Amino acid sequence: MAEWSWVIYTVLEVLIAVTCCLGNVLVVCAVCIGIRDSLREPMFCFLVSLAVADLLVGVAAVPLAVLLDGWVSLSPDLCLLLSCVVLVLTQASVLSLLAIAVDRYLRLYKPLRYKALASQRQTWLAVCACWTLSCLLGFTPLFGWNNYSTNAPGSTNTSISSLSTPPCTFLSVISLPFMVYFNFLGCVMAPLLVMTLLYTQIFWSLQGRLKESSPQAQASLLREKKLACSLALVLILFAICWIPLHLMNCLLLFHGPEAVTKGTLYAGILLSHANSAVNPVVYAYRIPKIQQAYSQIWRRLLIYINGFSGDKQVCQQRTSSQANQTEACGSGGKSTP
User: Among residues 230, 246, 113, 249, which one has the least CA distance to residue 171?
Assistant: First the structure.
């Protein structure tokens, strides 16, 4: 049963990884190529940052999750480093979502200063700050808060560990207290609470303005409200997909390994990774500019495919016509006395 659960888990992880890669590459292309001057708008810059984080989940985090399931024997340092990569990508997603919420809040509450606060230079500095802070927070276990000590006293343990390295798993090197108290409560829940407060104020303000504004201004406010609903949906999906896995870590910390079965843990990991595959679908159905960019990309791709197949058919027709002419010349030469 355990082997079958691992096989099913691995197959689903591969499918999620492929979906993550294809979907988020399409998002990056849609924003950077399909939408004109999109990178001048802060929201789209932060969406690209979130899409890159989701793309790296498919490229790196999912393969590492399968690899760090006790199937390889690595040195503790390398095992810890690879495990921290997953934490960095998760933190990058959280901070990108937070940057989007702050941008929506400033646009609504600071309209006169918004252009100065959210200039292109300031926006890209914010993106760089998000990724820098993600690396600092994600790589925190490398500085000592982990399940092993490289400076453990006694030369006997050192010699034994050098001869036989144990299988590398995420929780063999990442401390559960770190995952619960620092990562979950400090790095995930705290930003989620801040974002919840920001979106609550945004919706409260938009609702009040819609009642007091003129019919001409309501159209713009309705577009703003629809966009805020779409971005809030991305936030809600993130919470739904990631919180169960963190709650399992809490159970493991307070009640021991028997509190969570292997299959349940696999389901939590799959759900967290599936979040990165779901986001491009949300953008396609909820954000009109990205939806239009998707359509343009698919249209160009179909035109390219049709043009390529058409050129191939023309080449085949030319080749066949040249062959027929050659045969005709050959038969004409035979009939000549």
Answer: 249
Report the distance separating Cα 24 and Cα 21, nearest Å: 6
pLDDT of res. 67: 86
Tokens 């005709």 belong to residue: 328
Q: Are 142 and 70 within 8 A, CB to CB?
A: no
C-alpha distances (whole Å) from 242 to each of 69, 158, 183, 188, 238 are: 19, 37, 12, 9, 6
Cβ burial 208-231 (10 Å sphere, 16+ → b, else e): ebeeeeeeeeeeebeebbebbebb
Helices (H), 33-153: 42-56, 62-67, 76-109, 114-117, 120-138
- In terms of Cα–Cα distance, which of 94, 282, 272 is closest to 170? 272
**In terms of C-beta density within 10 A (0-12 exposed, 13-18 middle, 19 or more buried), how is residue 68 classed?**
buried
| Sign of the C-alpha dihedral computed for residues 29, 31, 33 and 39 taken in this order | negative
Nearest to 148 by CA among 241, 104, 58, 83: 83
Residue 49 CB neighbours (<10 A): 25
Query: CB neighbours of 88 closer than 8 A, spacing ≥ 6?
Result: 134, 135, 137, 138, 139
**Matching residue, tokens 């490398």:** 142
- How many Å apart are CA 147 and CA 242, to the nearest integer? 23
pLDDT tens readout for residues 282-307? 988 888 888 888 888 888 888 888 87
* Confidence bin at 210 (pLDDT 50/70/90): confident
How many angstroms separate the CA atoms of 183 and 147, rounded?
15
The structure's pTM equals: 0.84
Radius of gyration of the chain (CA): 27
Residue 151: the pLDDT is 42
**Where are any strands of DSSP class E within the chain?**
69-73, 167-169
- CA–CA gap between residue 11 and residue 104 (Å, rounded): 38
- Total residue length of the chain: 337
Cβ neighbours of residue 234 closer than 8 Å, sequence gap 6 or more: 50, 97, 100, 279, 282
Q: Using the 8-state DSSP alphabet, how is residue 150 labeled?
A: T
